[in-house]
Amino acid sequence: MGMQKQEAWRRNLAVLWLGTFIAGMGFSEIMPFLSLYVDDLGTFTKGQLTMYSGVTYAVTFLVIAIVSPVWGRLADRKGRKLMLLRSSLGMAVVIGAMGFVTNVWQLIGLRFLQGLFAGYIPNASALVAAETPRKQSGRALGVLTTGYVSGNLIGPVLGGILAQVFTIRWTFVLTGILLLIVFALSATMVHEHFQPVTRDQQAQRGSVLKAFQNPKLILVLLTSTMIIQMGNNSITPIISLYVRQLMHGVGPVTVVAGIIAALPGISTLLSAPKLGEYGDRRGTQRVLIFGYVFAVLMYFPQGFITSVWLLGVFRFMIGISDGALFPVVQTMLTKNSPQELTGTVFSWNQSFQALGSMLGSLLGGLIANWFNYSGVFTFTALTLLLNFLLLWWLVPEIRHWRQRA
């Protein structure tokens, strides 16, 4: 039996790695040129374009933020595998349909539905966390993260190339087909030994926060997830427009925008395991401090450059700070949460990440409208600086990193 269980969790990890890779790719493939697609759907001024782009991005994340906890509770009652199937099939249909819209409001409506069906990645994380032996769970979750991050990485480049070779519309259809493959793999090859939590048990828990030893720390960490993601996403709606401006509208804009959107992912992939290992050895707090300081220093100059190459260099550097910040916050959340609340905490973390994406997209669009593109980068640097000061003030463990190391 033990042997079978060994096999089962390894197979789950392999299939879900592929699933999160394709889901990450499907999600990010359309990101770099969504604002160029919006531009194709009507005649807009520069101000209208940045605002519509911001709303088109933000609406998905608004819905994810609201429905994630609901799906999280349902996953604890009905199982994570069911949630994986719901998500992959729903997203396949909705993203495929985006290739056939005729105006910006239809696109916004479908982006709204996309938010309803999201949740493949946190459910895959929760399933792997629950099914893997505790001793191996850190490593397994680390491996799973590389699936999502690699997909996120390749997505924009592949999307940019597909948009250049075929059309933007075809890219949506192809992404839908890929997600159907994920649905088929998840349905046939993922196995879950599931013990449902009944509605009564969920009600008996009362306020979930009471189950945590240090609820303040959990809330501060979730807020940090939101702010880090807000920084990442304030740039997303304008990146292809900023690249187009830096290239003076000449050359393969979607391909370059795709590459620049992917660069932070490459450096996250390279740096996260090394920084995680360093954190285990010398103290997680050191990695956290480095991540924030480095991010602030790398965001400031991005608004004042005139070369698309320099933008690429700085975006690559941002990925190193992401490689420090996201895993550290997740590790701190996992270590400070009871095991039976893994699903709940992962769904909260997704909610806060989605709120960050939504606020980032909307504020990015607004600030680009008021202060031009350069203001967005300055705003992001200042927000991260504030977040770091908040952590320093509210989480004493971070201040004592010298003694702990």
From TrEMBL:
Cellular component GO terms, alphabetical: plasma membrane
Descriptive protein name: Major facilitator superfamily permease
Molecular function terms from GO: transmembrane transporter activity
rRNA-binding as UniProt keyword: no
Range of residues in the leader sequence: none
Matching InterPro entries: MFS, MFS_dom, MFS_sugar_transport-like, MFS_trans_sf, Tet-R_TetA/multi-R_MdtG-like
Domain of life: Bacteria
Location of this chain's protein in the cell: Cell membrane
Chief location category: membrane
Keywords: Cell membrane, Membrane, Transmembrane, Transmembrane helix, Transport
Span of domain Major facilitator superfamily (MFS) profile: 12-399
